[in-house]
């Protein structure tokens, strides 16, 4: 992946300024960023949401989304000024010399056409190759990207192909004209970890093989470490720093970059093991559950002890959230039971007493849909205070203020705000306060940090850990992110396809030997080592990662 | 394909069931009329025999369920009984020729209405689709805004307002087209077309606006989808993006709106037919409503409802067929 | 026809020239450089149409009465358009400078069409409320000593009377007064009907969405069947029956009409409020409230309804338009609002024949167009406002 010497840069962006429309005014998204990319080089763009990395990536193609405009600076591609070029000139470059791979392949393939028809569209329309030739080339690319059934997968419609395969098919499509530059916009964010690794290795191989330059956009440091030669860190539309991948990982200069790196090292000390014979706070006992006729949980059992955190881990569709719905009583199990403090709970939440309901609270993944947009923060938190504890007037207000202080938000400032006036992390804190307001002993946290940026997520995790110590709460932590597990869990339950595959204390879980699935799951989580992917591939071989490995189990 | 077939069969069965229930509703509604209704229709001068004849004709001397089935059975064979107007006429002349049957009254008028609807659809559908695509292509331009105002106004106007405005400009001030559509059975096609054109234009105005807005909305709705951005980033021209990438996915809503409007053309023509004195089924219906000619009202209602349900059913099935997810199951 | 085709072809040449000229004049500025031929053609076409409109308007002001008469209505339309546009602009200016902070901000982002809509709605409400002060005579008043069938237009030579600018009807009632009272009757009845339809359909819809189960199934199937019958046809059928019962029961037929249309229309309201309700019910905050053990009333009124107001308000506007037009159509067909109440639909039917006088006496032809136009104008106004509201709420979501 070294570039040929003394060539002019492929992409040269100078002091670019991009605005986004909000109500009646234009607000800056990118505030003067420079970017230089040599032929054959891969540049990683990282930053949190709102950093403007996608906007910058698209601007490198001379493209802006609706409601976004480039207000200054210059973008040159191979000497062509993209900002002053005519629409026809730009159209001729896009797809042919610059290609794009989007975040969600499932949404970015047109559902009305077959994959191969979409694959050949760019070569045919740009007059590079005939239909037949480029279709054959497509099949060759599918094979190179290790797609199963390369001969016939192209003749399927997008909805007939899985997400990880679609993402590789989209990379093939981007390659169809052998472009000089590909923009990868978070191509693996929507995928499960075991699938992600397969797509990453496929992308990395093909980019190296054709010596294509690429801009790789992501928020995941470990991923970018595998893919990029150089890394550029963005923060709120401004560049923080740029350096070689290895330099950047080992010796970041700026405080912000250092703090990003540090997030991954947050780990709460594990609690001592539970003494034998104590009654668990919550027991899930041989639970089977079904949606209609489809059975989704098979004989699920685990315990949650007072003051402990149990992380339930698994990929999408593994039954983690369904288990939570059984505990809360939203989905009464068809067999087995839920015990609270040793006593069985009525399966249906409507049959539970007010006090039973109070003891179990929930914090949701999407803070946006978890808070009523028409109620103020004060009203949202006050409701359970009044409902369960019967406080009114001054006492109620005092309790709400105390809760707001507990979640580190100033009551005077936030009491009258609406959820739409809060940031993502603040919304999640309100969700926590609402759960605390009931004074429960057990809280279910359903992917509470997965929609948040890493720094914000870390803040939420620290807050939850502190609250647990202060109020001796028990948590059931549903997550697919193993970094979160490492940070906060005491015990781990691994689920797959509605079964509990393995469970035990955290320390044991992160130490081999394991159940094969746990092993695969753990080994698929990218690490902050640029050689991690290469080493893993060398160790396991290309056929023992991703879906292929899952299917073997 | 088995999957699609079962869904379609389900829809067909459901449509048939709906029609059956609708026929019950219509029948029951008519039976809400007071029992001595026949007397009041024929007026005080009616002989007891003619009143009895009408009661027998309506089957008022039989229980309601039996009446329903004999009515439905007749309707299925195209026999809707005889109309009151004809019955009282027969009463005066003392003859009972079959010439007064509802079916014979409706048949030629039904053909006329279908002709009017067909002419309007032939103008409106292509016009609306092209305009809709253009508006989506040049969205937020002056053209788009002007069409938006124009179509909103034409949707909001009652048909008779549009009809009178068209009469004013195209028949009275500039005598290009006739303002009254007197149509006969054995008329030359061109003549018939000319006489139909003004009512057809009125309907076109109403229907085009609605279809065009829905086409535009359906396409624009898709324009923010990632696959449209993908097509743009592949360097495809704006027209190709709309026609090749957006349109195939917008088919289901567009088919639906076309069907709704065709159904509207057949059932909502009432007002337009009255303005232009067009001898269609709508006018017959309104006249019968005024004279309380129940058998005709009942028959027209059933025909309108059947046409409406049938078109909606067709739309339903076509949108199922246009969906690749259903056509090509996993 | 041939001239028209020739004009279209010459536009093509003009459009090509226009684009070339634009490119040359601006030194290939991006706008002209990237202009497609279709757009250039559109500009030429629009300019030509505008030129024709100006010409036609000037014809309408011609001293020769024959020519002026021919273009009279076009002239009125153009003048009306300009007056309304200026009025809407002034109204928006007023709204931006007077009122609370919230309304000022609302007016600042408002398109002209919406401010026109709001202005017109306010005018209609004003006329409806103060009809008895504005109208020179009562709506059912047969003016003594004045002939029936005075021609509209006030031209004595044509059988008019300047005291009655729109003439009198066949039994000697003042048409202008009836037009003004029409606002009260037509709009008031349509409004009442919509309110009933909303109470009925809205409450059922939300109930079905929150409770689900067999109630939802039952209500939804009933609505399916009712919606399978075209609404105007169904209304006509039921009105036939009502017209027989009304005199026997001594209840005015108009009440029956209100009820019938309200029921028919409530099916549409039901569908929407059920859909809106369902989209809210699946939200996590509803789940949180359910798990808290909240009762039905709290869920409905505190959690669901406040979040449904925006779409319901827009739907109210649309339904009002629909009800209003249905009632006007029924009245036009002679089975809607019954005399002696003055109503626009009935007036159009009764006065429609006057349109045929347009060529030589345009003023005579105005009453039916005024009545029909009054219906259209209000419906247009409401639709403009609804369109803006829908646009705003969809914009806020992004």
From TrEMBL, chain A:
InterPro entries: AAA+_ATPase (IPR003593), ABC_Ni/Peptide_Import (IPR050388), ABC_transporter-like_ATP-bd (IPR003439), ABC_transporter-like_CS (IPR017871), Oligopep_ABC_C (IPR013563), P-loop_NTPase (IPR027417). Residues 11-261, 282-522 form the ABC transporter domain. One of its GO terms (cellular component) is plasma membrane. GO terms for molecular function: ATP binding; ATP hydrolysis activity. It comes from Yoonia vestfoldensis SKA53. The keyword Phosphoprotein does not apply. It comes from the Bacteria. CDD domains: ABC_NikE_OppD_transporters. One of its GO terms (biological process) is peptide transport. Pfam families: ABC_tran, oligo_HPY. Belongs to the ABC transporter superfamily. The lineage of its organism: Bacteria, Pseudomonadati, Pseudomonadota, Alphaproteobacteria, Rhodobacterales. This is Peptide ABC transporter, ATP-binding protein. Keywords: ATP-binding, Cell inner membrane, Cell membrane, Membrane, Nucleotide-binding, Translocase, Transport.
UniProtKB/TrEMBL annotation, chain B:
Residues 110-315 form the ABC transmembrane type-1 domain. The keyword Transmembrane helix applies. It is a multi-pass membrane protein. SUPFAM superfamilies: MetI-like. The keyword Transmembrane helix applies. It comes from the Bacteria. The chain crosses the membrane at residues 12-33, 114-138, 159-177, 197-215, 250-276, 296-321. It is found in: Cell membrane. One of its GO terms (biological process) is transmembrane transport. Its main location: membrane. Keywords: Cell membrane, Membrane, Transmembrane, Transmembrane helix, Transport. GO terms for cellular component: plasma membrane. It holds the Pfam family BPD_transp_1. InterPro entries: BPD_transp_1_N, MetI-like, MetI-like_sf. PANTHER family: DIPEPTIDE TRANSPORT SYSTEM PERMEASE PROTEIN DPPB-RELATED, PEPTIDE ABC TRANSPORTER PERMEASE PROTEIN. Belongs to the binding-protein-dependent transport system permease family. This is Peptide ABC transporter, permease protein. It comes from Yoonia vestfoldensis SKA53. The lineage of its organism: Bacteria, Pseudomonadati, Pseudomonadota, Alphaproteobacteria, Rhodobacterales.
UniProtKB/TrEMBL annotation, chain C:
GO terms for biological process: transmembrane transport. The chain crosses the membrane at residues 40-60, 72-94, 114-135, 187-215, 227-247, 316-337, 369-390. It is a multi-pass membrane protein. It is found in: Cell membrane. It comes from the Bacteria. Residues 183-390 form the ABC transmembrane type-1 domain. The keyword Protein transport does not apply. PANTHER family: OLIGOPEPTIDE TRANSPORT SYSTEM PERMEASE PROTEIN APPC, PEPTIDE ABC TRANSPORTER PERMEASE PROTEIN. Belongs to the binding-protein-dependent transport system permease family. This is ABC transmembrane type-1 domain-containing protein. The lineage of its organism: Bacteria, Pseudomonadati, Pseudomonadota, Alphaproteobacteria, Rhodobacterales.
């Amino acid at each position: 992946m070294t570039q040929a010497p003394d060539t002019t840069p492929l992409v040269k962006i100078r002091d670019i300024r991009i605005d986004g429309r909000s109500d009646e005014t234009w607000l800056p998204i990118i505030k003067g960023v420079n970017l230089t990319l040599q032929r054959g080089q891969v540049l990683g763009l990282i930053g949190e949401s709102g950093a403007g990395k996608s906007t910058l990536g698209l601007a490198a193609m001379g493209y802006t989304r609706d409601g976004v405009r480039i207000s200054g600076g210059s973008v040159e591609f191979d000497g062509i000024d993209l900002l002053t070029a005519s629409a026809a000139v730009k159209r001729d470059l896009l797809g042919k010399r610059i290609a794009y791979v989007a975040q969600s392949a499932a949404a970015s393939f047109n559902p009305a056409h077959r994959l191969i028809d979409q694959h050949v569209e760019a070569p045919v329309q740009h007059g590079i190759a005939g239909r037949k030739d480029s279709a054959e080339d497509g099949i060759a690319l599918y094979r190179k990207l290790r797609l199963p059934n390369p001969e016939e997968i192209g003749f399927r419609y997008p909805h007939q192909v899985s997400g990880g395969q679609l993402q590789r098919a989209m990379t093939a499509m981007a390659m169809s004209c052998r472009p000089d530059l590909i923009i990868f916009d978070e191509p693996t964010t929507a995928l499960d970890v075991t699938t992600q690794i397969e797509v990453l290795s496929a992308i990395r191989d093909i980019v190296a093989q054709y010596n294509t330059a690429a801009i790789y956009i992501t928020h995941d440091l470990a991923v970018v470490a595998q893919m990029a030669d150089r890394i550029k860190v963005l923060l709120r539309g401004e560049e923080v720093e740029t350096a070689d991948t290895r330099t950047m990982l080992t010796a970041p200069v700026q405080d912000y970059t250092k703090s990003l790196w540090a997030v991954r090292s947050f780990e709460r000390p594990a609690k001592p093991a539970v003494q034998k014979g104590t009654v668990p706070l919550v027991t899930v006992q041989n639970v089977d559950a079904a949606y209609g006729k489809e059975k989704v949980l098979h004989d699920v059992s685990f315990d949650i002890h007072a003051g402990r955190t149990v992380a339930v881990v698994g990929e999408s569709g593994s039954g983690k959230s369904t288990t939570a719905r059984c505990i809360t009583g939203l989905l009464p199990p068809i067999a087995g039971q839920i015990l609270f403090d040793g006593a069985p709970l009525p399966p249906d939440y409507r049959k539970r007493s007010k006090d039973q309901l109070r003891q179990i609270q929930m914090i949701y993944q999407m803070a946006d849909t978890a808070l009523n947009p028409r109620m103020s923060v004060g009203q949202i938190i006050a409701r359970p205070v009044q409902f369960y504890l019967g406080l009114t007037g001054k006492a109620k207000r005092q309790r709400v203020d105390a809760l707001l202080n507990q979640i580190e938000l100033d009551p005077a400032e936030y009491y009258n705000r609406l959820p739409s006036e809060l940031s993502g992390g603040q919304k999640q804190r309100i969700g926590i306060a609402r759960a605390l307001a009931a004074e429960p002993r057990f809280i279910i946290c359903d992917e509470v940090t997965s929609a948040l940026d890493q720094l914000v997520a870390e803040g939420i995790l620290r807050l939850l850990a502190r609250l647990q110590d202060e109020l001796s709460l028990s948590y059931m932590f549903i997550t697919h992110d193993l970094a979160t597990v490492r940070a906060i869990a005491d015990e781990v339950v691994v689920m797959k396809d509605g079964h509990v595959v393995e469970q035990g204390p955290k320390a044991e879980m992160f130490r081999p030997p394991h159940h094969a699935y746990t092993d695969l799951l753990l080994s698929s989580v990218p690490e902050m080592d640029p050689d991690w992917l290469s080493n893993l591939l060398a160790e396991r071989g290309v056929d023992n990662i991703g879906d292929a490995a899952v299917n073997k189990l | 394909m088995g999957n699609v077939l079962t869904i379609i069969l389900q829809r067909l069965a459901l449509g048939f069931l709906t029609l059956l229930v609708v026929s019950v509703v219509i029948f029951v509604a008519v039976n809400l009329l007071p029992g001595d209704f026949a007397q009041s229709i024929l007026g005080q001068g009616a002989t007891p025999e003619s009143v009895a004849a009408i009661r027998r004709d309506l089957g008022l001397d039989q229980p309601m369920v039996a009446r329903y089935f004999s009515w439905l059975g007749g309707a299925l064979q195209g026999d809707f009984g005889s109309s009151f107007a004809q019955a009282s006429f027969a009463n005066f002349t003392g003859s009972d020729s079959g010439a007064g049957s509802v079916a014979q009254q409706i048949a030629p008028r039904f053909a006329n209405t279908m002709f009017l609807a067909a002419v309007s659809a032939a103008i409106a559908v292509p016009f609306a689709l092209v305009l809709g695509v253009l508006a989506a292509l040049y969205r937020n331009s002056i053209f788009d805004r002007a069409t938006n105002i124009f179509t909103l106004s034409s949707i909001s106007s009652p048909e008779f307002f549009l009809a009178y405005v068209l009469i004013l400009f195209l028949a009275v001030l500039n005598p290009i087209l006739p303002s009254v559509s007197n149509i006969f059975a054995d008329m030359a096609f061109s003549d018939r077309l000319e006489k139909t054109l003004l009512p057809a234009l009125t309907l076109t105005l109403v229907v085009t606006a609605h279809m065009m807005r829905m086409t535009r909305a359906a396409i624009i709705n898709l324009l923010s989808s990632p696959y449209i951005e993908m097509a743009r980033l592949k360097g495809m021209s704006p027209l190709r993006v709309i026609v090749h990438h957006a349109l195939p996915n917008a088919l289901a809503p567009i088919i639906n709106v076309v069907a709704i409007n065709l159904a509207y053309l057949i059932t909502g023509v009432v007002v337009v037919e009255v303005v232009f004195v067009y001898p269609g089924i709508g006018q017959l219906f309104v006249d019968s409503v005024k004279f309380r000619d129940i058998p005709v009202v009942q028959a027209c209602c059933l025909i309108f409802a059947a046409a409406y349900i049938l078109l909606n059913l067709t739309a339903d099935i076509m949108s199922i067929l246009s969906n690749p997810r259903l056509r090509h199951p996993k | 026809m041939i001239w028209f085709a020739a004009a279209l072809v010459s536009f093509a040449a003009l459009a090509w020239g226009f684009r070339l000229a634009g490119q040359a004049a601006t030194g290939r500025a991006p706008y002209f450089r990237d202009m497609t031929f279709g757009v250039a053609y559109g500009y030429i076409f629009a300019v030509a149409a505008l030129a024709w409109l100006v010409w036609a308007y000037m014809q309408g002001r011609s001293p020769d009465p024959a020519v002026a008469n021919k273009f009279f209505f076009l002239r009125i339309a153009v003048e009306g358009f300009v007056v309304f546009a200026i009025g809407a602009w002034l109204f928006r200016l007023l709204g931006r400078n007077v009122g609370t902070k919230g309304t000022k901000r609302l007016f600042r982002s408002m398109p002209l069409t919406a401010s026109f809509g709001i202005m017109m709605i306010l005018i209609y409400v004003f006329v409806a409320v103060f009809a008895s002060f504005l109208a020179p005579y009562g709506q059912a008043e047969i003016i003594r000593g004045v002939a029936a069938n005075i021609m509209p237009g006030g031209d004595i030579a044509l059988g008019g009377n300047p005291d009655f600018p729109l003439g009198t009807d066949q039994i000697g009632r003042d048409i202008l007064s009836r037009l003004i009272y029409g606002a009260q009757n037509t709009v008031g009845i349509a409004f009442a009907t919509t309110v009933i339809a909303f109470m009925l359909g809205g409450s059922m819809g939300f109930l079905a969405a929150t409770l689900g189960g067999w109630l939802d199934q039952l209500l939804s199937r009933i609505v399916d069947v009712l919606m399978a019958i075209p609404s105007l046809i169904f209304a006509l059928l039921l009105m036939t029956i009502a017209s027989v019962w009304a005199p026997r029961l001594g209840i005015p037929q108009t009440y029956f009409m209100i009820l019938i249309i309200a029921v028919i229309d409530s099916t549409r309201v039901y569908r929407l409020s059920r859909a809106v309700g369902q989209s809210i019910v699946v939200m996590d905050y509803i789940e949180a409230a359910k798990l808290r053990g909240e009762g039905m009333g709290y869920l409905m009124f505190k959690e669901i309804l406040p979040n449904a107001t925006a779409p319901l308000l827009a739907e109210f506007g649309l339904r009002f338009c629909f009800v209003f037009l249905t009632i006007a159509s029924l009245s036009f067909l002679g089975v809607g609002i019954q005399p002696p109440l003055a109503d626009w639909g009935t007036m159009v039917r009764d006065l429609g024949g006057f349109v045929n006088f347009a060529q030589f006496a345009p003023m005579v032809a105005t009453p039916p167009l005024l009545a029909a136009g009054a219906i259209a104008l209000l419906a247009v106004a409401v639709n403009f406002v609804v369109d803006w509201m829908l646009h705003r709420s969809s914009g806020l979501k992004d």
